[in-house]
UniProtKB/TrEMBL annotation:
PROSITE patterns (UniProt xref): RT_POL (PS50878)
InterPro entries xref list: RT_dom (IPR000477)
Protein name: Reverse transcriptase domain-containing protein
Domain Reverse transcriptase positions: 1-103
PANTHER family associated with the record: REVERSE TRANSCRIPTASE DOMAIN-CONTAINING PROTEIN, REVERSE TRANSCRIPTASE-LIKE PROTEIN WITH RNA-DIRECTED DNA POLYMERASE DOMAIN
Domain of life: Eukaryota
């Protein structure tokens, strides 16, 4: 197609972008005409028909449609204007896909329809990812995160350069797919806390991800030559922002710094949420043990314990760390019971929380046997433990595996757990042990509180 010589006569209702008239757009053989009025658009249709006949071409009227965008909060005429091409009336539509972007003129927001389509498509992709489990076996978290970036991220951020970050309603629709996928991947309940889904996988919350992409696109626009249409469009939106949104241009100039900061800001807010959450007691004290010594953990990163291949063990340790279990410390919260009253169902002498049941409670022979074989396995693993575990100051002086085991047993449980998580072998042993202990506690009758929900106080 050679359409470069196609022009339309000037009209008073032409669309002006920044300081240039933009009356038509061409993308390969896709052509879009535009005008601010019905009369102006009809004039352009006539001009196009003329140009086509001069060039021995004919326009396919069945594929030609009209879309009318009314200004917000204006009443629409009962009889919409009509448009003709070759004396045939053109179809007026309220949704149309142009260059991969679905436009919609009927709702209050042009992008509602497209966001809804993207969310449906992402949900289908998510279901497909888990459907393969029935054919290939479980989908482990690491591979699940790779599938997320390949299959879901592209759908959840489709055309974000055009639509922008999105309204709250649009974002909630897309976010629900992201949350559903990550919860299912980690084996958590549908109402588990959101912050841990990101802190444990390194996936960025969708709002931050979309903002990151939009800011990246803005930087690209700012670097374009002034003659570029995309640059003119940017200038026009800046002019539109004028005095009422005077801070916008200023923010734009800082976009690059902002973009780099998006991850840091998300990380900070997630860390803050974890620290402030009464549920996430274990994660609050998380320390990462590296070969060169302990350090504060990264806010957002894929956690090595999610690489455990044994699904039941992996999901048990995930639920234990992220407080998504049925120990009394959690079920008592649902009943509104004070934390101190959520006593252990076996010994009745301490709060039934993960650290108590894993490392302290000694009221059941079954539990003691499980714990004894757990420590025996840890002792064997200490023989070949990797540098991070050997780098723990308290263990450095242990001369043999037996001494390491004893020192670990004497370490406070809240710290010991993260030392064990520093090594793949001890992580696996801890995960299997957690699975066994949680199974044992799941088999106990749930604790009943006198007064039940009526006893509700300031439970945290
Ligand atoms: Zn107990």
């Amino acid at each position: 197609m050679y359409v470069s010589d196609f022009t339309t006569p000037a009209h008073k209702d032409d669309v002006v972008m920044s300081d240039e008239v933009v009356a038509h757009l061409e993308h390969a053989d896709d052509l879009a005409l535009m005008s601010m009025s019905a009369e102006g658009l009809q004039q352009k249709l006539d001009a196009l028909a003329d140009w086509a006949s001069r060039n021995q071409m004919e326009i396919n009227t069945s594929k030609t449609v009209v879309m009318i965008f009314y200004p917000p909060r204006t009443s629409r005429p009962t009889q919409p204007p009509s448009f003709q091409l070759y004396a045939q009336q053109l179809l007026i539509v309220d949704r149309y896909k142009y260059v991969g972007v679905l436009l919609c003129s009927s709702g209050s927001n042009t992008w509602d329809e497209m966001i809804s389509t993207c969310s449906k498509s992402a949900r289908r992709a998510a279901n497909m990812c888990f459907f393969v489990e029935s054919r290939t076996g479980q989908l482990p978290p690491w591979e699940g995160c790779m599938l997320y970036s390949a299959q879901l991220d592209s759908r959840l951020t489709h055309a974000v350069e055009v639509t922008g970050v999105g309204t709250n309603k649009q974002l909630e629709l897309l976010e629900s797919v992201q949350l559903h996928y990550l919860r299912r991947l980690l084996g958590l309940q549908t109402r588990s806390q959101k912050c841990v889904l990101f802190s444990e996988t390194g996936v960025l919350p969708l709002r931050a991800r979309r903002l990151e992409l939009v800011l990246g696109y803005l930087i690209y626009l700012l670097r374009l030559p002034d003659s570029h249409y995309a640059k003119r469009a940017l200038r026009q939106t800046m002019e539109n922002a004028d005095s009422r949104r005077s801070g916008w241009w200023h923010d734009l100039r800082q976009a690059e710094a902002l973009r780099v900061r998006v991850r840091a800001i998300s990380g900070e807010s997630i860390t803050e949420e974890i620290r402030g959450s009464p549920k996430l007691e274990i994660l609050r004290d998380r320390v990462e043990y590296l070969a060169r010594g302990p350090k504060l953990p990264a806010a957002l990163t894929f956690r090595p314990y999610l690489k455990i291949m044994n699904k039941a063990a992996r999901q048990a340790i995930t639920r234990m760390l992220l407080s998504d279990h049925r120990l009394a410390v959690e079920t008592g919260r649902w009943d509104g019971v004070d934390r101190a009253d959520r006593q252990c169902r076996l010994c009745d002498s301490a709060v039934e929380d993960p650290l108590h049941v894993l490392f302290e409670c000694s009221q059941s022979v079954d539990l003691l046997n499980l714990r004894r074989s757990f420590w025996d396995e840890i002792e064997v693993a200490c023989e070949n433990a990797t540098a991070p575990v050997r780098g723990v100051p308290d263990l450095r002086e242990a001369t043999n595996a037996r001494a390491s085991r004893l020192r670990l047993q004497l370490t406070p449980a809240s710290k010991c757990i993260f030392i064990l998580l520093a090594d793949a072998r001890t992580t696996s042993i801890l995960a299997v042990f957690t699975h066994r202990v949680l199974t044992l506690f799941d088999s106990l009758p749930p604790r009943r509180y006198p007064g039940g929900r009526l006893q509700r106080r300031n439970a945290v």
